[in-house]
């Protein structure tokens, strides 16, 4: 039963505790509406409170109706709702539409969470999303962190982001809503192959399921969970070794470490400036390694978002090229 899976995930990953205020991101779509109903059922049993946040990206003609749907849903369930609006297409002149939309949504959720003093931010990613994300990263090229997929719980800018549906399949979500006669909003663009993820969802995964492994989604999800635990352990060791000056690495000590630790420490220093390593590729890491071992003193490597890595006589420095702005 889907509610039991949710309770098991909350207990196993320690997602919510009694007294928490949980901000639920609700788009109005199938997954987030299901998550909201399930969390409302559990809130009485486990003793936590809910609030809803919805951001209108203004990308579709029906987006305003999505906002109204979420507002009415909040009234029906007796849950406070905060609705925001941002013209993502206008902002996307400066970059990728998908990335701009994702960042705008994240900033909105963090702002709302801070304003209401939420303990957790709940997102509706499910097992299918996990499988799609891992496969997408494999095809694009990734390291251990990318293979760890979508984590059930992670710290982000001082907030705890949770994904209670991460072990639930999309078909279970759809069956729950059908059984309860709940009609969510449907985003028709999910059926179009315009975006890379949609192509995986609509074409590649069905092919792999039919001709190679009928349990491909479970296989990818289980692999991601196993790797996530391995990565968490290695990352804790890297954090311990990276203590000290936030933007400097002692070259002699660094070169004595295992290559696995070296690369994790490089990524840690980059993420401290950039907030993440989303645009950092294997090529960037190899270039920094070449800088450390082969290039002369005062050589630099330029990274995305204005990050610079500078080689000094006994250390490597990380800094933002434009001091007046964040990387």
Summarize the structure.
The protein is α/β, with parallel strands linked by helices and 327 residues long. It has helices at residues 2-12, 30-46, 63-77, 88-91, 97-116, 127-140, 144-147, 170-179, 196-211, 216-241, 251-255, 259-274, 282-294; strands at residues 21-25, 49-56, 81-85, 120-122, 153-156, 159-162, 248-250, 300-303, 307-311, 315-320.
The count of strands amounts to 10
* Helix percent band: 40-55%
What is the CATH homologous superfamily assignment of the largest domain? HUPs
Side by side, the strands of the main sheet go 3-2-1-4-6-5
Order of helices and strands: HEHEHEHHEHHEEHHHEHHHEEE
Q: How many domain modules?
A: 2
What CATH architecture label of the largest domain applies?
Answer: 3-Layer(aba) Sandwich
Overall form: globular
Q: Major β-sheet, in short?
A: 6 strands, mixed
Radius of gyration: 22 Å
**Uncertain residue ranges:** none
Number of helices: 13
Structure notes:
By secondary structure, this protein is an alpha/beta fold. It folds into two domains: 2-211, HUPs (Rossmann fold, 3-Layer(aba) Sandwich), CATH 3.40.50; 245-320, Uridine Diphospho-n-acetylenolpyruvylglucosamine Reductase, domain 3 (2-Layer Sandwich). It is built from 13 helices and ten strands. It has helices at 2-12, 30-46, 63-77, 88-91, 97-116, 127-140, 144-147, 170-179, 196-211, 216-241, 251-255, 259-274, 282-294; strands at 21-25, 49-56, 81-85, 120-122, 153-156, 159-162, 248-250, 300-303, 307-311, 315-320. A hairpin with a 3-residue loop joins strand 9 and strand 10 (315-320). The chain is globular and about 65 Å long. The model has no long low-confidence stretch (mean pLDDT 91).
């Amino acid at each position: 039963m889907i509610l039991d899976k949710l309770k098991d995930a909350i207990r196993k990953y320690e997602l919510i505790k009694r007294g928490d205020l949980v901000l639920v991101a609700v788009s109005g779509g199938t997954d987030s509406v299901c998550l909201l109903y399930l969390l409302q059922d559990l809130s009485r049993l486990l003793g936590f409170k809910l609030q809803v946040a919805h951001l209108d990206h203004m990308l579709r003609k029906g987006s305003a109706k999505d906002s109204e749907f979420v507002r009415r849903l909040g009234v029906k369930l007796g849950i406070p709702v905060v609705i925001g609006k941002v013209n993502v297409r206008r902002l996307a002149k400066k970059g990728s539409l998908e990335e701009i939309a994702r960042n705008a949504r994240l900033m909105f959720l963090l702002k709302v969470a801070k304003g209401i003093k939420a303990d957790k931010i709940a997102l509706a990613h499910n097992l299918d999303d996990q499988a799609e994300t891992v496969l997408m990263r494999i095809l694009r090229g990734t390291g251990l962190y990318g293979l760890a997929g979508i984590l059930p719980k992670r710290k982000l800018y001082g907030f705890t982001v949770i994904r209670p549906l991460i072990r639930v399949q999309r078909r279970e979500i759809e069956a729950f809503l059908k059984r309860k006669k709940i009609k969510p909003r449907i985003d028709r663009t999910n059926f179009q192959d315009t975006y890379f993820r949609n192509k995986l969802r609509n074409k590649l995964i069905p092919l792999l399921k039919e001709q190679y492994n009928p349990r491909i989604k479970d296989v990818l999800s289980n692999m991601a969970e196993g790797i996530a635990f391995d990565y968490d352990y290695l990352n804790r060791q890297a954090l311990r070794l990276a203590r000290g000056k936030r933007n400097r690495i002692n070259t002699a000590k660094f070169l004595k470490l295992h290559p696995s630790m070296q690369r994790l420490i490089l990524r840690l220093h980059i993420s401290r400036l950039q907030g993440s390593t989303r645009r950092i590729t294997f090529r960037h890491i190899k270039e920094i390694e070449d800088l450390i071992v082969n290039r002369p003193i005062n050589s630099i490597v330029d990274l995305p978002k204005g990050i610079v890595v500078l080689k000094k006589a006994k250390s490597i420095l990380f800094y933002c090229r434009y001091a007046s702005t964040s990387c």
